[in-house]
Amino acid sequence: MRARGEASERPPVSSDGFATHSRDVNERSIRSAIRSAFIEAHSAKLRATGEFTRLLATPRVHFVYLHHVFEDETANFRRTLEEIGKTHQYVSYSKAVELVYSGKVDRPYACVSFDDGLKTTLAASRVMDELGISGCFFVCPAIVGELDREMVRRFAETRLRYPPMDVLSWPDIEDMLARGHEIGSHTFSHPNMGEVSVEQAIDELQLSAEAIRRRIGGVKHFAWPSGKWANFSARAGKAVFDLGYESCASAIRGCHMPRSFEVQPRDVCFRRDHIMGSWPLHHNMYFLARSVLLASGNDYEWPNEWRSIVRTERHPVAASSTPSAGRTMLAVPAH
Predict the structure, then answer these.
(1) Rounded to whole angstroms, how far apart are CA atoms 53 and 282?
(2) How far apart are CA 308 and CA 289, in angstroms?
(3) What values do phi and psi take at 127, rounded to 5?
(4) Other residues' Cβ atoms within 10 Å of the Cβ of residue 160
(5) Cα–Cα distance measured from residue 158 to residue 41, given in angstroms and rounded to the nearest whole number
(6) pTM strictly above 0.85
(7) β-strand 28-29 against 89-90: which pairing, if any?
(8) Which residues of the chain have pLDDT under 70?
(9) If DSSP states are collapsed to H, E and C, what string results for the chain?
(10) What is the pLDDT of residues 64-123, one digit of tens each?
(11) How many CB atoms lie within 10 A of CB 135?
């Protein structure tokens, strides 16, 4: 996101406003140029001192995630996965979660996930198949399979905050599942979970889980939209586990270091590093190295003031399967 008043340039998207290339979603701005220069300088310094190699070889569990892989990003996406694979052992999302809970991490492990359920991730999953990598795709059932482009456009503008793109269908999701990938929940309709009521948060979590379970039989993992602390709450975190999810992930950068003790699911908020197929390979790798450089032993924890709330167990929340009063949600498409 560019700073207020900052000049930027974004090439036009397709004739109907849908993004079809990486240039359609990548802003060129003063801020992004400064950020790129910083990454170049810091990355070069780490490489010159040998720190880059040491950091990437450090035992840990590293979650990386993306949103889209356009056709013009595919080659670099593949190169990035291959580069990560030189120093990391790929595992499924569920296995990565299990490793973090156990603390028994003896080497660098990596797993890959995608947020939002965009159509381009179907092709990305096939690239991963070729490399023997199982990914997790976090979807929003309210928009899965939507063919009305105006509905998709409105969803993108009001919920995703970037140009509209085609979305996955349920057959796409079933196909990925059959090929060994996992499907997770990204809420029902992608609201800012930090701004909704507790009742609305429970609706989003429960309706999403019910829709996914109804279509594919089960869902274990959850990642909240936008992924920052301001976009979530302690009570929403508690509801994730009350409703039966086995993990909860943010989009906060970081990785998970070895521990001498096990932790319970409610103790952990997973960190994930955002990468993009349009970024230079060494930029993507820099973010992994930087997360190791900044890592501490308790990077898995929730904010101090949230912990007691999230960790309080209770019987599953008896939330209504219909939207709460006053709730704003996209209509459920009939597929």
Answers:
(1) 12
(2) 32
(3) -60, -45
(4) 20
(5) 36
(6) yes
(7) unpaired
(8) 1-15, 315-335
(9) CCCCCCCEECCCCCCCCCCCCHHHCCCEEHHHHHHHHHHHHHHHHHHHCCHHHHHHCCCEEEEEEECCCCHHHHHHHHHHHHHHHHHCEECCHHHHHHHHHHCCCCCEEEEEEEECCECHHHHHHHHHHHCCCCEEEEECCCCCCCCCHHHHHHHHHHHHCCCCCCECCHHHHHHHHHCCCEEEECCCCCCCCCCCCHHHHHHHHHHHHHHHHHHHCCCCEEECCCCCHHHCCHHHHHHHHHCCCCEEECCCCCCECCCCCCCCHHHCCECCEECCCCCCHHHHHHHHHHHHHCCCCCCCCCCCCCHHHHCCCCCCCCCCCCCCCCCCCCCCCCC
(10) 999 999 999 999 999 999 999 999 999 999 999 999 999 999 999 999 999 999 999 999
(11) 26
- The Cα 107–Cα 189 span in angstroms is 37
Residue extents of the structural domains in the chain: 58-310
Q: Which residues does 187 contact at the CB level (< 8 Å), separation at least 6?
A: 140, 193, 204, 205, 208, 224, 225
Dig out the tokens for 46 from the structure: 């780490």
Q: In whole angstroms, what is the distance from residue 151 CA to residue 143 CA?
A: 8
Both structure tokens of 243: 């409703």
CATH code of 58-310, in short, is 3.20.20.370
To which residue do tokens 């429970």 refer? Answer: 202
**Max Cα distance, the chain (Å):** 59
